[in-house]
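Newbie here. two chains, one complex. Structure please?
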Amino acid sequence: MADPVKLTIDGQAVQAAPGTLVINAAKEAGIPIPAFCYYDGLALQAACRMCLVEVEKTPKLQVACTLPVAEGMVVHTDSPAVQQARKGTLEFLLTNHPLDCPVCDKGGECELQDMVFRYGAGESRYREEKIHVDEKQWSPIVFYDAPRCILCYRCVRICGEGLGVSALGVGNRGAAAEIVPNGGDHLECDECGACIDICPVGALTSGTYRYKTRPWEMEHVGTICTHCSNGCKTTLGIRNGNIIRANNRDRSGINGEFLCIKGRYAFDFNEHPDRLTMPLVRQNGELKPVSWAIALATVAKKFLELRAKKGRFGVLGSTRTSNEENFVLQKFARRILNTNNIDHHRTGDLPALLDALSGRTDALATMGELYTAKAALVIDSDLAQEQPLIAFQLRANWRHHKAHVYVVSPGPVREDSYAETVRAGLGQEFEALETLREKLAKEPELTILFGAAIKGDAVRRLVAFGDSLGIPVKYVCLVDYSNSRGASDMGLLPDLAPGYEAVPEPGLNYDQILSDGALDAVWIVGTNPAARQPLAFSNTFVVVQDLFLTETARQADVVLPAASAYEKTGTVTSVTGEIQKLSRAAKTMGAKPDLDIFQLLAKEMREDLGTVKPESVFREISESVKGYNVSFPVIETGQAIPTYPINGRVAFRPEPELIRPAENTLFTSGTLGRYSEMLNSVLESPGALYRDPIRDTGIRVGSVTQETQTTAPVDKPQ
Amino acid sequence: MIYNEPSPLETKIISQRWTMENSAAIDTYLATDGYVAIRKALEMTPEAIIEELKASSLRGRGGAGFPTGLKWSFVPRNSGKPSYIICNSDESEPGTCKDRLLMENDPHQMIEGMLIAGWTIKSNKGYVFIRGEYRYLIPIVDKAIAEAYERGYLGKNILGSGWDFDLYTHTGAGAYECGEESALLESLEGKRGIPRLKPPFPAVVGAFQCPTILNNCETFSAVPVILRNGGAWFAGLGTPKNGGTRLLCISGHINNPGVYELPLGFPFEQLLNEVCGGMRNGKKLKAVIPGGSSAPVLTAEEVQGLLLDYDSIAKLKSMAGSGGIVILDEDTDIVAVALRTIKFYAHESCGWCIPCREGTTWLKKILTRFHAGFGQQSDIELIGELANNMLGRTFCALGDAAAMPTTGFITKFRSEFEAYLAKNHLTLEDTTPELVAIEAH
């Protein structure tokens, strides 16, 4: 590395790498230089002129956000000239700014307010009329109030550079300049709301949050989004026990400030009026609300009765419940119900990958590594739709580090704009890979991400391909749900116990449990299989734990209202193996966390599950599950720790036919998403981007599912 | 066509063909030394061409006055990328109307200048970026380009040199800002006309991210004659470091407004009294805007003995700018002039940076109110301070272009502003008829 440049900032001797911008060199030295348009990771604008500093021997004030450090440079960031310039700029900004702070969503956490407070003049000299433009609504989510806008172009850049969507541009000129959707009067975009969160003022506001509260009235609880497997940290704003908003402005978590529409706005399912608040028991053919005591007694009595006469049980676990819950559920099934008939909806062939890697350490990539890897290869996944954080990470890696990204996909995907793409139908991936072999082998390292179409033997072939390149290769098996990885790691599998330990007598799998009409009891926790396939239950005693009366719950004998991920404490494991903590943020009267339900049920059955508190279960997991021996305090403080559940060959029963992708788009989230009004309103708003390939046969262009669809798209009413 | 009678005091060099019949036709051009310079250039090395330009002390005629030879020498010639020649014919500076005459009356001269630039950096493509409001010029320039193609001066293997050069016209969309070279490039690339961060300068990263020579139409038009007659000859026409002649666009309260070609360093008084026939209606001179509306105003006292070249005008803390000289007589209402000027810049501010976007608009509002008779003493101070808060702090020179004249009016004619306050109200009829017409518009 080149020698550091020595300069002086406010009398302080500072060293910085050549090319460092003065604004960053000062920040490193603990000297803040105010700026609106300068934003870490986005293109330089030099538009707001707030960061002007005095540089000795330079006649004019200099823009610190575009000025590289130079040897011997002497910078003053707080001289009278600089103070005067900042005052002048802020005075200009306030001329047409409406000063409606008392009713502005941003009031209290507004960068313009803070800047004026810190650097501005005490009084206004502006006596003229302000320019007024009416507020516009661009989508169910995004509202724009032009007069409040200070034109820092952060929104334009996060959308174009960050997401690769480029839904926003600038219209008009001079004082009439304003942000405009490139699609005319409405947005054609991911509706992720990154533009809203990045806005330093209240110009962009969200349909969920606007005029709901003052920021200081909320408590902020950092937890993990429950909608997909990427494991984004979302900070929930809670007022009176209700979730009012979600964002991640503190850039904590594996996602930094990234969130998609689901992480930012689809928390509203939690307060949907259809949430179950009382247990239901079938009486005379109808589900009737009963007390928890009656419901639990009913289930315990039936389970004990069936166990006593050696009845057959089946258990389906959830891909959204916590690791602790999954661990306890499989323990309950295996130890109390004496069955290995346990499974979950598998969206990726993790056992096959772990077996193929056969104990190799350091072959699973983390989310952080997707931002630093020199090269990545994506096979059969429309990342922007299905794995939004991964899509963001890879794009950022390409933007900032010039990473090489390769794509093998059956249909157009967003990565095409910067990746080297090979179009290949499902099943043709390996032919396509051969065409890339030469280039891939020249990379210093590679991370391969593969979707659900690569399963069973194809996973083994893929790892063999990776090995044959002669370079270090890491893998990501792209599972879909928020704790798909945890469900697999915690042994919600008929053939594998926690940590992928083989069980002596594998039980029935997912399809078998659902189609075997002769099971005596089926216990379904937090999953809705009836939405995808018919249930062959006739004389089966069916217990369902869920948030809503789903298609599956309607067929149950007992329905137990469960708490959502936002209402419980525990841990989940992301698609890239990071274990992170769920923190209880909200509460629904009557619903209980699944972990509490397991404990109460065990108690009712006079069985001992040990201490069933999240912390104690986690301790048990970290002591007994391979790869989960991680520091609890680190997780407790909101950090992510990667897990590597790898230890030699995995004696699994290959069942590739059970690997089925969630087929969620950016705007759907399985059963849960149906209860989000915000997701629904976006799906119903104009724009081809928002159509749902499952409920409506119109397919979003660019989705891999487009290729798997066998029937021609037909328009039909919802 | 030409719009004013030429003056015998002119040194007609780049405007030499304007008065000829069919002056824009290629045959007229060829009959008068046309395309001789490119033949000569094709025999020369790029270094030799640049040396000739440096010797000519030709400076950019768009406004900034940067030495042309030096600018060309900055273009990397082995970048491995294509390179471009761009002619800035986005002539928008108020008071300036020379490029339109050059394109209308002698387009081949500009084309030949661009060709020489193209050969110098081995570029294969050029664009003439013509101001949107000059749409009527496009058929004229297009016709000239077609003629040049026909005769082998454009296209493949030019004059057997093995070198290809294509030339296109492109029109702006009516934004003053696009006269700023990097905003012009954005506009040319089909984007919003906003300036780019510099460095890198267009010489290195210009059109389509490639090395680019970007000059004003008049600058390119001066290149052929420099190669024909030599840099030293051209330099000798003007004053030291201010080579050659330039087209001065004289407007305002004079008897013979028009565009005149005069050597740099021409005395102002001679221009006013002899070339332009003196002040209209025998009025007294009050003020002069010496280089387009963004040049700070000079008083009648200041212009006494002034020589019209870059350095002499710069000494008076104004600028030769684009060559647009506005003469204002004793009846001129300076407050109205200041208002008209800031109205233009507020209208043309691209909106990219805060001080220009908000500053020009605020100044316009204050001056509008002031001019309407609702001014207060503190406004005079405020106008000065706001202009100062813009000066040197904006992203591009447009902010300075708005602030400098405003500061000039308010400091040099402060008494007129104060008289407004004393009088408390002036009606529009009290101002000059021209300005009334402009205001009404």
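Moderator note: The longest strand of chain B covers residues 245-252. Confidence is low (pLDDT under 50) at residues 431-441 of chain B. Thread marked as resolved.
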